[in-house]
Amino acid sequence: MNPYIFSVILPILATLIFRTNHPKRRGIPVTDGSGDPGVTIRNRRFDSPVETAWEGVSTLVELFEEACRKHDVLRFGSGLAALGHERNERAAIFADTREEWFLALQGCFRRNVTVVTMYASLGEEAICHSLNETEVTTVICGKKELKTLVNISGQIDSVKRVICMDDDIPSDASSVGHGWTIISFADVKRLGKENPVDADLPLPADVAVIMYTSGSTGLPKGVMMTHGNVLATLSAVMTIVPKLGKKDVYLAYLPLAHILELAAENLMAAVGIAIGYGSPLTLTDTSSKIKKGTKGDATVLMPTLLAAVPAILDRVRDGVFKKVNAAGGLSKKLFYLAYERRLQAINGSWFGAWGLEKALWNFLVFSKVRAILGGRIRFILSGGAPLSGDTQQFINICLGAPIGQGYGLTETCAGGTFSDFDDTSVGRVGPPLPCSFVKLIDWSEGGYLTNDSPMPRGEIVIGGPNVTLGYFKNEEKTNESYKVDEKGMRWFYTGDIGRFHTDGCLEIIDRKKDIVKLQHGEYVSLGKVEAALIVSPYVDNIMLHADPFHSYCVALVVTSQSTLEEWASKQEIPYSSFSELCSKEESVKEVHASLVKEAKKARLEKFEIPAKIKLLSDPWTPESGLVTAALKIKREVIKKTFQEELVKLYSS
């Protein structure tokens, strides 16, 4: 059957149907007036913030105990106690995401031990700072991280015990004169089996986790999360994700030291959902660490649920489009026809959503795309950074799964807002979660006011039981960012700028720290411009730089090797290395022209468009320290690293 017939017949059928599109109310204004003046929105389903969705459950450990009564799980806490770790001492987990990470977390919770979390990609200075500031006595890590600990053993003050998740403990680790007891994870479990102890369960107000973020500036800050804080977010998400149940399978690969993944896995365990552990480098069949002839994590596990950060989803999207374009011919035309038809459906054309046509496109075109993530994905949660509209539409169309875009911070246990599963609009992050109130307050200096038209705008402030206690041993910073109102509700001042749509959904439009005034008084929002330009096919990553002493911006561009080399081949441009290709004047002109094109599409002002750019050949990774584990750029670190290049851009 010729698929082009649909573009003729179905529009005719569409005229026979009358369709009324009433906006759905997703968030409700709050009028009690507590806290600072502003415009406040709550979730439409709940009058007050939700604290728990499970009767009789008020802490994370009670939630896991409930799961243990229904589902088999190994125990770790007794072995920790047998090793001599006291409940008033802190334990740190320093490893990549894996089963032992999660079990160690729950074992610590059962003994009311506060867990300090650190990204496995943190630099040595940040690791020393985190361990020493929290006076950690037990570190639980993998053998890779154990080698790092050995290297900095002379700079760590309080550590007494190291538990290695791997059985093959490096031989050089035990010979170092650090005075640590080093034992394998398996031996700790055996020790616990031989010396069982009763659980010492925490209270809701007890600190469950001190989470050290790989912040974009300076040393990381430790955010203190109580059991009640995290439980409030989990309870709220329970009301959002449709039909969570034991038939689901969750693919875990994001860092468990990130609140998004930690919350997700606790929720999966509570519901009884199977968790399979992978990594970003082995996620798909074409991931960089997949050996030839073997399959990726998603292909093997065939998950139904996935949490992701936008950078991961962007890579999936770019990979599909590159493969389609390379194939060319009829298959390329068919793909883009199918894509356009489904896009029409999402944007409101009823006939494009017609079951028969949708099924046909899924069979002919999109089933191959869905196979990339195992073929069974039914819901994706995206968080950690803004998701581009192009990528959101790609997920909806090609994977056929709703994608819930959330907005939250470590300081709010990832809770804030979350888009409803039936909301296909782009560029927004949904209404408040049931655990939160979300308020906008005036930021006069930046020109964002709650009485702005057509929508109220201002700094985003989040209140509710999910708002954390503050920063560990940093009262000054805590007092800057947290406030308690006259009713006892705790509020966190995010520094992000948003606006409320008429249906109660939030849109993030700016960030206070990212706004720079140029020489002639124009304000440039660095994050907004970067989000507009990163969609260029030549860009893997980008950092815009604005200087108050200049009237224009410049940019550092991490260049997409495959795209630039494909262009160079067509242009018959000779080069001996990718680094050399990036330095060629023709390459710079081509990439800059692409950036200007995307800037015009996004209706950026002339002064917002980078006047000069520097192409970089090496990717920015968490290991290089230039991006966070959630793949957000570390602006200050990048500025320092490429200071010479930035100076040249302004002086050339």
Helical stretch count?
A: 22
Physical arrangement of strands within the biggest beta sheet: 7-6-5-3-4-8-9-18
Beta content: 15-25%
Please bin the fraction of helical residues: 25-40%
CATH architecture of the domain at 60-202: 3-Layer(aba) Sandwich
Give me the CATH fold name of the domain at 60-202. Answer: Rossmann fold
CA gyration radius, whole angstroms: 25 Å
Characterize the largest beta sheet: strand count, sense, and whether it forms a barrel. 8 strands, mixed
User: How would you state the average pLDDT, rounded?
Assistant: 88
Overall number of strands: 26
Query: Quick one: overall form?
Result: globular
CATH class of the domain at 60-202: Alpha Beta
Straight-line N-to-C gap: 59 Å
- Low-confidence sequence ranges: 1-22
Give the class from helix and strand content and strand pairing: alpha/beta
Describe the protein's architecture and organization.
The chain is of the alpha/beta class. Among the domains are: 60-202, Rossmann fold, CATH 3.40.50; 267-401, no CATH class; 518-651, GMP Synthetase, Chain A, domain 3 (2-Layer Sandwich), CATH 3.30.300. 35% of the residues lie in helices and 20% in strands.
